Amino acid sequence: MTDHGTELSKLKVIFTAEVKKHHYKENGVWMIIHNNVYDVTSFLEEHPGGEDSLLDVAGKEATQDFEDVGHSDDARELMKKYLIGTLPPEEHKKTGGTTGEKDKFEPPCSNLKWAVFALAGALVFGIVLKKYLSK
Ligand code: HEM
What are the residue boundaries of the Cytochrome b5 heme-binding domain, all occurrences included (predicted)? Predict the structure, then answer.
């Protein structure tokens, strides 16, 4: 496996608005799959799933359609050839899946953890204070 993180960080940043402009053959057919931008203009006629399926999602977010088909590992390897850029982080969609960057992991109970710590601290402080005052 290659270091995908480093590969991605070298990619050109392309905004969704720019991708939208490339939705027909004459202007190039671009699409977004797992927050990455692909230019499939030269692949249209070779696509085993047909030109039309690619034209349907031209200039759009195509992750769901791409995953719904259940593309093979070979297809995922092949798509690297057409990778031209990546969306800026603020335009990333949480799509899950097997390519692209993983969404940031946020521990769901970090606030609860701090509340328990604070409570335990207050309790210890209370006990010490009580002992000190009762002397
Ligand atoms: C860069 C993007 C893409 C690449 C490189 C690619 C490549 C391929 C390849 C190699 C296959 C043959 C089967 C396989 O190996 O999985 C295939 C099949 C297919 N693809 Fe794509 N594809 C891409 C994007 C898409 C998108 C966005 C859609 C739908 C909107 C799509 C729809 C299909 C369909 C319907 C099939 C036929 C499946 C079948 O007959 O079993 N593909 N694609």
Answer: 11-88
Quick: pLDDT tens for 92-105: 987 554 444 444 44
- In angstroms, the CA 111 to CA 115 distance is 6
**What does the alpha-carbon distance between residue 131 and residue 125 come to, in Å, rounded to a whole number?**
10
Together in a domain, 63 and 94: yes
From 67, 71, 77, 95, the mutation candidate for ligand 1 (largest count of ligand atoms within 8 A of CB) is 71
pLDDT at 81 over 90: yes
CATH value at residue 21: 3.10.120.10
Same domain membership, residue 130 and residue 99 = no
pLDDT at 11: 86
39 CA distance to ligand 1 centroid (A)?
A: 14
